[in-house]
Amino acid sequence: MIATAFFVSVSLLLGAAGAISKHPLVLLVAIDGFGFDYLDRGLTPVIQRLKENGSSARYMYNAFPTVTAPNFFTISTGLHPEVHGVIGNRAFNENHVCLWQNEDMDQLFHYDDRVIPLWTLNELSGEDRYSATLGWPSSEYDYRNHPIAHNDLNRIENSSEKIDQTIRWFLDDDKPTNLAFLYFGQLDAMGHKYGPNSAEVNSTLQEVDVTINYLLTELVKYNLRDKMNIIILSDHGMLEVPKENLIDFRDWLKNDSYKACGESPYWQIKIEPGHEQEVYNKLKDEANKLGTFAVYRKEEIPERWHVKHTKRQADLLLVAKPNYGFYDAVQFEGDHGYDPDADIRVRPLFIASGPAFKEKCVIEPFNNLDIFPLVSKMLHLKEPLIKPNGTITFIKDILKNP
Ligand SMILES: [Zn+2]
Q1: Does pTM top 0.85 for this prediction?
Q2: C-alpha gyration radius of the chain
Q3: For the chain, which terminal residue's Cβ has fewer other Cβ atoms within 10 angstroms, N or C?
Q4: Is 387 helix (H, G, I), strand (E, B) or coil?
Q5: 226 alpha carbon – ligand 1 mean position (Å)
Q6: How far is ligand 1, taken at its centre, from the CA of residue 232, in Å?
Q7: 120 in Cβ contact with 110 (< 8 Å)
Q8: Cα 212 to the center of its chain, rounded Å
C-alpha cells in the first residue's frame, strides 16, 4: 500500500511537471537480431503476453541484405534499399569508395537528400511535434540539416537508463516527444559471438524481457501506459555459421584486379579495368564448384531484393547461402544478411500494443516498409518528398480506426 501511494504521488508530481504532447504517442523499440522464432523458446513471457494481448504478425518480411543498417533505414524511411541508398552495413559510394568507417557513415545515410526518416518528417510536420532517438542506427545524423529535439548523442549504454531518458523526453516541459525510437543491440552481439542457439543468447533474451518489463512498469508509474502506442520490432534473425563453412574469395583473385566492399554474407566486387572476364569467370567457377555462394553480375541481381537500381551497386555481388559465410565472419558463430526468402529464420518480429491498436489481433506477415505509412497515418504526418515503397493496405488492419 505504501509503495502504491508513493508511485501515485510521484506520477502525479511528474504528470503535473511534465507536459504531454497533444499528438498521439508512438514509441518504436528495436531489438537488434531478434528472430521471430526466438519467441518460441519460452524465455520472454512479458513480450509473449504483449503479443497475445496486442496486435502482431508471425514475422515481418525484411529487406535484403538482412542486416541492420538497410533494414532500420527501410523501416524509418518506408523505402527500398536501392531508393534510400543503404544497400549494406557497408557499401560503395558512386566513386567506389567503400563506406564503412565511422567518418563515412554520415555519407552512407545521405545518398539522396530527399530521403528523410520518420523522426525528421515528424518534426517537419510542425504543430509542436518533437522526436527522440536513442541509438537507433542512422539517427545520429541530421537530415535536411534539421537537428531533432532529443537525440542521445552520448550513447547511453545501460538499458534502464535508456528507458528513463525516453520517458523524460515524453514528459519534457519544453518539447514533449510524440515519437521516439529506442534501440537495444546486445542480443545481436551475443548471437554473432556465441551463435543463435547458445546459452548466452538465451540469457540475453531473458534480459531483454526484463528490460521490456521495466519499460512497461515505468510507463504505468508515469501514467503513460494507456497513452503509449508501443511497437516492438527487429531487423533480422540469426543463423549458425560453422567455421568450416567460411569462404575466402581473396585466395582466388589477384590483389590488383578488384576492390571489395561488404561483410559476410554479402560482398560487392568492383572489377578493375581489363580484368572483367578473369575475375567474373574465376568467381563463377568457384561458386559452381562449391555451391555455397552465388555470384551475380549487377544486371543479374534479383529484382525482388531492390538493391540493383542504384549507382552504389558495383559490378558483382557475392551472397553466401544460409549457414555459410565469407572469411571475415571468422570470429562469429552466428551471422545474418542472407536472402530473406532463403531461410525463414532471418525474419524479424513485430508486436504492437497501445490505445490505437486492436487487442488480440494477428495479421498476415507484411513488409517492414509498411511501418512508415502506419506511423505517418497515426501521427497525421506530411507527405514525404519521395512516395514510400510501403503501403498501409495490409498493416492498417491492426488499427482500431484504420
Ligand atoms: Zn548483426
Answers
A1: yes
A2: 22
A3: N
A4: coil
A5: 33
A6: 18
A7: no
A8: 18
Q: Of all helices (H) and strands (E), which one includes residue 184? A: strand 179-184
What distance in Å separates the CA atoms of residue 55 and residue 43, rounded to the nearest whole number? 20
Distance 16 CA to ligand 1 centre (A): 42
Per-residue cell: 154? 552520448
Q: Which one is predicted more confidently, 70 or 6?
A: 70
Distances (CA, A) of 296 to 284, 302, 317: 9, 9, 5
DSSP string, 17-41: HS---SSPEEEEEEETT-BGGGGGG
Query: Given a cut of 60, is residue 17 above it in pLDDT?
Result: no
List phi, psi (to 5°) of 264. -55, 135
3-state secondary structure of 384: coil
Tell me how far apart the alpha carbons of residues 217 and 330 are, in angstroms, rounded to a whole number.
41
325-326/246-247 β-pairing? parallel
The residue whose grid cell reads 544460409 is: 322
Instruction: Quote the ligand 1 centre to 212 CA distance (angstroms).
Output: 21
Residue pLDDT, tens place only, 166-224: 999 999 999 999 999 999 999 999 999 999 999 999 999 999 999 999 999 999 999 99
Greatest CA separation found in the chain?
Answer: 80
Cα–ligand 1 centroid distance for 278 (angstroms)? 33
